[in-house]
User: Fold this.
Amino acid sequence: MQDVVLAMLAKEPAYGYELRSRMRGALGPLGEAMNAGQIYVTLSRLAKAGLVTSQRAEGLPDRPDRRVYALTSAGQQRVAAWLAEVTWPKPDLSEFHLKLVAAAAARLADPVALIDAQRRELLRRLRDTQRAAMERSVDPVVGLLLEGVVLRLRADLDWLEACERMWTERDRTERKGSR
Amino acid sequence: MTGSALLRARGVTRWYGRESALVRAVDEVDLDVPAGQTLAIMGPSGCGKSTLLHLLGGLQRPTDGEIWLAEHRIDGMSERDLARLRRHHIGFVFQSFHLMDELTAVENVELAALLAGWSPRRARKRAMHLLDRVGLADRAKHLPSALSGGQRQRVAIARALSNEPLVVLADEPTGNLDSAATLEVLRLFEELRTAGQTLVVVTHDARIAAVADRVISMRDGSFADDSQLAETAAGAGTVYGGWR
Assistant:
């Protein structure tokens, strides 16, 4: 979050509200959940760390969204380092995997029912994302982000299908074994 | 027929083979599809979903159970009545399009209406309207061979709608399509959903399932999970944490 906010300031100093609308514009429908408060909390942390400075704009009330924020040279260096860094968000499947393993081992819940519930949730997300992507008015750059989300959700759904096969098969074998 | 379901199945079972080689492709399935609902049936290959679709559309007969379409009980209907019912009330969409190669797009589309007894003039008018609706009015005179896969499937969907069916049944409609063509079909299904067309689609493509009102997961011939895809509380913003 800090890096993103810094990078959005790299082009030129901006009012808090400008920064917020720049980010919203880039994220499209995915930016709707963005909380304005988060940005101002982040900006104040960045200011404490000496990465941004802010100035009160003349004639405007002194509120975080009406201040003009700018990068310090330390902030500029940090943006450059962030851009050069090779990172990739990791979808963490191990928690869900362990949930299934634990549920089955302790007979706390049916793993296949957990998979079904997870699939329902992912299908809902896929539906919302697809709907947003199918809007003809969607900006192509935002569309690219939505396409990425759709691809990830599909990969997760494929993985759930593999989980389902495995746990259904295991359940069947155990039932046969206990007979 | 009781209740408000347009399509209704009770204890529907279909076996293949016999004795030790007996396979219960569909095993005592109960289903109610209300008018205007879009339903996706998902599941791994061999789970019985295509057989179920064929039973619902009267293309195959159940070993046991009852199937109703509106006020018609179809499981025991004579072949002749069944063929008539399919022509008038059911639209089919298949994975491999099943268009007539020697007929143009508009001729393919109007064929279903002509077979249902529409006058040529009315059938042509309806076909042109549907081709326009699927975005292919300018391809009306093209043969299927001159169309892309996505365009052919859209023609097939227009054909499925040409007799104003009570229900459209689709079997893996995006199975042979690339990503862009799938998106075209998704758009179209989304429009059909909004327009209140009753639609049952069998698929293992999550993208298609995600545009349905309701998703059923099938395993070993029966329903394992049946869920309404209600809106998520916070909309698309919650997807993948929205933004981070």
Summary: The CA atoms of residues 8 and 19 of chain A lie 7 Å apart. Helices of chain A lie at 2-8, 16-27, 36-48, 73-84, 94-105, 111-134, 140-178. The mean pLDDT of chain A is 87.
